[in-house]
Design goal:
Elements (H helix, E strand, L loop, with lengths): L4 E3 L1 H31 L7 H25 L1 E3 L14 E7 L4 E8 L10 E3 L3 H6 L7 E6 L2 E12 L2
């Protein structure tokens, strides 16, 4: 069964751009590095050659992974997702009840998650616990660092 990947429009465009860069720029850079290393002579004990070949293998693996993801993408903004509950693509304002501090998260797929930007995966403990909830709900979430208690203040959608 092929699993669809949900991305924001921005995440989709970013991933396409990164894939293009890897295929048409980074591949040529690594090919040049391999050529330079090969020109140094015996490749059996050439650390530069080994490093360039390893980089090439990792790049090709990442290209393959990204092509698989992009082949099954559904852009969140194109989906008919309820706006009164938390689902993928929701922008959620929360109140940390214990610290009396407001937090904002955007629920996204694993491929797009970036905690530093407040983008959390729907498969992460916090994201999973918020799914299907409504404004006004209180949620208690067990995480490795302890227990979090949030009140859901507002739900909005990515536009």
């Amino acid at each position: 069964m092929i699993r669809e990947t949900y991305l924001t429009r921005d995440g989709y465009e970013r991933m396409k751009k990164e894939l293009h860069h890897m295929k048409y720029i980074r591949r040529q850079e690594i090919a040049r590095e391999i050529g330079v290393a090969r020109a140094h002579g015996d490749i059996s004990e050439n650390a530069e050659y080994d490093a360039a070949k390893e980089a090439q293998g990792l790049l090709e693996k990442r290209i393959h992974e990204m092509e698989k993801i992009l082949a099954r993408v559904r852009v969140i903004e194109d989906e008919n997702i309820p706006e009164d509950k938390i689902y993928i693509g929701a922008i959620v304002d929360l109140l940390d009840v214990d610290q009396n501090k407001e937090i904002r998260y955007i629920l996204v797929s694993e491929e797009e998650a970036d905690f530093a930007k407040g983008m959390i995966s729907t498969t992460a403990p916090v994201g999973k616990a918020l799914l299907g909830r409504e404004e006004g709900d209180e949620v208690t979430i067990k995480v490795p660092a302890g227990t979090l208690r949030y009140e859901i203040l507002k739900i909005a959608r990515l536009k």
